[in-house]
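Input:
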Amino acid sequence: MASAAEGRGVPRRVAITGLDTFAGLHTAERLLDWPQPPEIVGIDLRSPRRLEGRVGLHRVDLTEPTADSQVAEILEKERCDTLLHAGFLSHSHSDRSYAHELEVIGTLHVMNAAASAGVRKLVVLSTAEVYGPSPYNPGYLTESCELRPHPDSHMARDRAEMEQLLGLFADRHPQVVVTVLRPCWVIGPTIDSRVLRHFESARVTTLLGYDPLLQWLHESDLLDAIERVLRRDARGPYNLAGAGALPVSTLLRLAGKRARRVPHSVLQRLGYAGTLWSDGDAPAGFYDYLRFPWLVDVTRAREELGFEPEYSTKEAWMSFVVSRRLRRYR
Amino acid sequence: MTESQELHELREAIAGLREEIEGRWMRSGAPPADEDPEGAVGAARGEREAPGVLDGLAAEIRARASEVDWLGLFNELRRRFAGFGIAEGGTEIDDFGLDPAYLEQRRGWLDFLFERWWRIETAGTELIPSGERLLFVSNRSGVLPYDGLMIAHAVERAAGAESRPRFLVADWLLGVPFSAGLLSRLGGVRACAENAERLLRTGRHVIAFPEGQKGALKPFSDRYQLQRFARGGFVSIAVRERATIVPVAVVGAEEVHPILFQSSFAERLLGVPLPVTPTFPWLGPLGLVPLPSRWRIRFGAPIRFADVPPECAADPLYVNRTREIVRGTVRTLLEQEVRGRSSVF
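Output:
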């Protein structure tokens, strides 16, 4: 905070799209805890009850055709200097075209609004899933690696398309500091996602004969990283993950869970029916993320942001396991 | 006439013997070990068979069968099969998936392969430098990465557990079910420049096989013919990471899976190369058992790049020249060893 670069980067008025998502809600709470909290403007369809009275909410549906001018109007009126775009789906949406509207077109609206309203900094929450799982991946993927999302995973594909648009936007508008965060799977006691639903049950479906290393990022470390990029200016993508990586089988053994090992060909043939039978929530393409490695290298985040995750992969996983176990006894 | 009479007597004698044996079995309480063989004897015995013997046998089998927990047996077998190369090991795993606890559990096996199966002799281990980043460069042989595993084991036996190098493995092998988990637990890493650099930078030694696929899948008639050394990426890595190249020649590993030919049809079908050996795929999984040839692993004099400016890593001419020097060294070692041995086994 003492350095000049940070002083310049510290936001005064922050707009958060997707205030009712995990990242939006908790980032808002963290910003309100700062000694000199910035003004927060929420943009979402619903307001989280925890923030009522503390944060003003503007109701905007990002899938509407005129969402860009609505958002631009809000940003101008509130004189926001920073925009955190967290308005993404945490669960795979069954309606692919709606998901595409929200994730890709919604982001397009948001970035165009940011440019026209003169926002200085735009932080976008992507995911490391955009790299895609592959036996040909290097052991650790760096930010310069090509994005090859799994073709069946429309969620990862949408995010990759969104990142591509964002890259073009950043080239066209050098006056806007565009930061992209690519966290690996986020885990923790309070966050909920389709991936965690998969790992919640006592018997977890995995692939027969495949046991890749997995990384986890603890939810508080994700929030810490968001706070860091809000405080200081950082351009481009940043991978985020906890220290270390563990094979799926070891994770399950640590949790005392059992694996239901299914041949990949069976899951593939059964297609959607197969995923319904095993886990209602696991979308197409998900299992390939349990088949081949897609580990990310966090050197850039560590060196440029000073990002040091508090929880290693193992600790993050254990915090999830313990919290879910306690929840069952409540 | 006399012939049929003799036959009749013989039959009766056999039947008498049989009855006596069965009687003794009944008295000792043990069931007959197996069914009677079909034929004239069996037919003749049919009417005289005490009904109690068969009934007793059937009851015995039924009683034993109900004792066996078939579901449990099925579940156990399924668990064993599904967990092959996966279920055991520790929970401390390094960033490329090496599991020290698993390696320790398997040490007996590795020692057996090293000492008994291939009776490996090492030479030149005193030339392995200590306190430097090492990039072992070896000839590739055999389809499965036994050679990498054994070089790693040889280095560990000579220089201590902390200097156990990691061996690079072809990608296609890591896409095959069960092999990725198993190989990475034993220290295998996917062969690519990023991985080799990361390993060297974090202080771990690396074994590279610049021949790659060409070396692994060459037919038996081309054994010990060193293939081309790819594009010399290993030289760039060594120069950039300030690593010392240690040439290694492995003799004997080329005979563990003598490749007759490559089945391109099967390759198109399966998506992975399918070499045909005298035992594979004819004997199924048994065909994967390597032949017990006698091996020699010889380490050569290290090649250092301390005084080479780092820009040379990007100079194609320099890289090419150095690549050929290293290849020549490995080839010389290989030829000396092949000439020096008296027998494959």
